[in-house]
Amino acid sequence: MSLTLPNFSALQSHKLRQSAEQIVERIDFGRQRAVMTGIPHRLAVDLDAGTYKLEWQGEGSTNTTRAAKPATEPGINAPLSLAPPPATERNFEAVPGPLGRLETLGRGVEFAWIETPTSDVDFGEAFITFEGDGTSSYTMLVLNEPGGGELALEILPLAETVRILDEDF
User: Does residue 77 sit within a domain?
Assistant: First the structure.
């Protein structure tokens, strides 16, 4: 007769790896969709809540900033206005469909920090942005678990890929 006990640490590290792979899928999809549509996309990460979602500068989210009115009404002898035309700026909104839903990390998995070329963030919101041609900046997103395990997602802009690095990154 034998008794088998589950290895809970292996189960937890499986959840960590599974969460990392789901985030990589979102990142890859966001980059591909940015290239296909020519519209910037981003992965919005809330480090405190442990949530993330894919966003884009969608068609229905246009805000127009109006140019200042000229001081005089145009007439025959009025000076030509050199003011730029109204600028159009689009806000980010969730990608339509299931990949735009707010997702939560697996139980016991947390965001540790995000490293970008400009800053390191360990609380609040952070964004991983893909321009309309699919380019992005180097970013490292680190996940951890209470048992001390860590995985890093390294976004490589030139290779246009994401690597999952084990604890020894």
Answer: no
